[in-house]
Design goal:
This protein has helices at about 20-30, 55-65, 90-100, and strands spanning about 1-5, 10-15, 70, 75. By secondary structure, the chain is α+β, with helices and mostly antiparallel strands. It has a domain at about 35-70. The protein is elongated and about 80 Å long. The structure holds zinc ion (ZN). Zinc ion binds near residues 7, 10 and 22.
């Protein structure tokens, strides 16, 4: 019995061991390879107030964590500018009332 091989576009006998150069490529294509992000210049300054190039996903995560930045799409928001747009005044009043009742 033979089986078609997509790697070398040939046929291999299933009674024989599958060629290594073919099986290796099959296993790699079956894996999800997470590509690291390309180096980039962030839009926000680092802890020293300067903008440093980010060289990879790991650096990117550490950069966000040590600055308490929140990733919003491609923008970075610092913790000093809280967004109140989505919170109505009624919500805030309700929250204050709840705190006062304690
Ligand atoms: Zn093959």
């Amino acid at each position: 019995m033979q089986r078609f091989c997509k790697i070398c576009n040939g046929w291999h006998d299933l009674d024989e061991p599958w060629p290594r150069q073919c099986s290796v490529k099959v296993s790699i294509s079956g894996l999800q390879i997470v590509k690291d992000i390309e180096p980039y210049m962030p839009v926000a300054a680092d802890t020293d107030g300067k903008i440093h190039a980010i060289g990879g996903r790991r650096q990117h995560r550490e950069f966000l964590r040590r600055n308490n930045y929140v990733e919003v799409g491609n923008e970075l928001k610092g913790p000093s500018r809280p967004e109140l747009d989505h919170t109505s005044k009624a919500d805030i009043k309700q929250a204050i009332d709840q705190v006062r009742r304690r």
